[in-house]
Amino acid sequence: MRLCSANTWEIFKREFRAYFESPVAYVFLVFYLMLIGFLTFFVSRFYEANQADLKYFFFWFPWVNLLLVPAATMRLWSEERRTGTMELLLTFPVTLGEALLGKFWAAWTFMTLATILTFPIVITTMWLGDPDLGAILGGYLGAILLAGAYVAVGVWTSAMTRNQVISYVVALVVCLFLALAGWPPVMDIVNRWAPSWLVSAVASLSVMPHYESLQRGVVDFRDVLYYASVIVLALFGCYLVLENRRTA
Amino acid sequence: MLDVQHLQKKFGLIEAVRDISFAVTKGEILGVLGPNGAGKSTTMRMITGFLPPTSGTAIIGGYDIVEQPLQAKRLIGYLPENAPLYPEMTVRGFLDFVAGIRGYRGAERRRRVESAIERCRLEKVRHQTIETLSKGYRQRVCFAQAVLHDPQLLVMDEPTDGLDPNQKHVVREMIRSMASEKAILISTHILEEVEAVCTRAIIIADGRIIAEGTPAELKARHPSGRLDEVFRMLTRSAAEQTVVHR
Predict the structure, then answer these.
(1) Is A210 domain-assigned?
(2) B48 contacts A91? CB cut-off 8 A
(3) Is-contact B139 B104, C-beta < 8 A?
(4) Which of A58, A77, A70, A245 is nearest to A174 (CA)?
(5) Which of A150, A184, B102, B183 could pair covalently with B149 via S-S, beta carbons 3.0-4.6 A apart?
(6) Count of domains forming chain A
(7) CB count, 10 Å around CB of B109?
(8) Domain of A72, in residue numbers
(9) Do A11 and B101 touch (CB under 8 A)?
(10) Rg (alpha carbons) of chain B, rounded to whole number
């Protein structure tokens, strides 16, 4: 399947514009940036730390994305199903895969835009000191890939229901699992009953080690492969859900 | 143009459509009549490729909707029930999206959008968002979407449902104006509509075709000579038969 056919491009444009045709995009972007800024400067006490280092800034992306990526993706399929436009979309000469990819690219591009708009924090840091540029680029790449994985999960859950709230909550829970999978308190619970291979399998699902290693400014092929696998799996899951709806 | 062959659709244990076959040629307007829940919408959704049939298929201009869905879909214009649309888009923006999806680019794309706007008399609302439009205008926007690529087959699921008499008149005028160069399939439960626009009609009840003919032929089936009496006579007995059958 082609990653961006002409049809995918048309659907991408429609979906991306749809964010800006309602107040959604503006409200979203303002709150996204305010939240990242607040957490970096006030909760992590960026100034008091007295280091021109973006460690605390990048620390917050998995958590802010956890709350807000599902909000950006919850309507993608659920709204099509609720209003019946899905019937229109799937009777156009478009394959399901093309429509799915168009929506995914649109939401991911929107999240990439949100991520990049945090650049004033980087400029502030560069003005105050001399942070490692490689680490900043790696951090941003990690944040964008992380957003891509969350977006794919959100696209998937939005196909499961015609209710946007359910779509949001399920996406949040799945992303929370991806974020916490390797975290010691969670692993302790799994450890109590699961065999060791399962424990390590669950731990290896976590986004965190891959996110943190990119922050060091090292682009490891395995980290990129991890994100690509999560995205492909979630989108394939979404495809199956949609196909199943049609044949049921 | 359209050849429907033994379509069947099961939802779990419920058989919504059982072995429906019919054909529509160019220049014909075929009305699909039936009570609510008879299987009209399900049949149309299978013909347009939204729902895969459990068995059977529909051939559109030589292309099998199950085997060659993309080629077949290019030849179809579809107006789904309740005219679903993207509420946040403007009329022009929406039609431009549809033109893009239908493969038009550049000047041809603009021309297609303009001609659809003109044909469906949408000039006044072209820059309005769809959510601000009245039901009649929405219906026409969805109609514009269906005829933008000048399809050989036009499928309309209850195109005048919920419209006032003036709006119904406008929609019927648009349908008639296109009749000569297309094959048209209209589902409805409004009997006057069949007499007003259709050249031929089939009556579906309980997922089966129970009668077929021109409006005049169908009317002759009941001594009163009125279509609603024929409809009641046929669909009621079909419903009763199924009850006994089960």
Answers:
(1) yes
(2) yes
(3) no
(4) A70
(5) B102
(6) 1
(7) 17
(8) 6-247
(9) yes
(10) 18
Instruction: Please write down the HEC assignment for all residues of A18-72.
Output: HHHHCCHHHHHHHHHHHHHHHHHHHHCCHHHHCCCCCHHHHHCHHHHHHHHHHHH
Instruction: Name the strand (E) or helix (H) holding B195.
Output: helix B191-197
CB B136 within 8 A of CB B183: no
**B244, B231, B246: which is closest to B38 by C-alpha?**
B231
What does the DSSP 8-state code read for residue B27?
T
In a domain, A21, yes or no: yes
- Tell me whether residues B88 and A14 touch, CB distance under 8 A: no
Question: What's the predicted TM-score (pTM) here?
Answer: 0.91
> Residue A21: closest CA among chain B residues belongs to which residue?
B88
Task: Quick: pLDDT tens for A158-206.
Answer: 999 999 999 999 999 999 999 988 788 878 887 888 888 888 888 888 8
Q: Does any domain span residue A1?
A: no
Residues of A in contact with B113 (CB under 8 A): none
Can you read off the two tokens belonging to residue B1? Answer: 């143009």
Which one-letter amino acid corresponds to residue A121?
I
Residues 140-169 on A with a CB inside 8 Å of B are none
- Which residues have a Cβ under 8 Å from the Cβ of B5 and sit 6 or more positions away? B21, B56, B57, B58, B59
Contact B194, B40 (CB under 8 A): no
Question: Are the C-beta atoms of residues B35 and B205 closer than 8 Å to each other?
Answer: yes
Q: What is the pLDDT of residue B122?
A: 92
B55-60/B63-64 β-pairing: antiparallel
Tokens of A189: 């619970």
As for the ipTM of the complex, it is 0.89
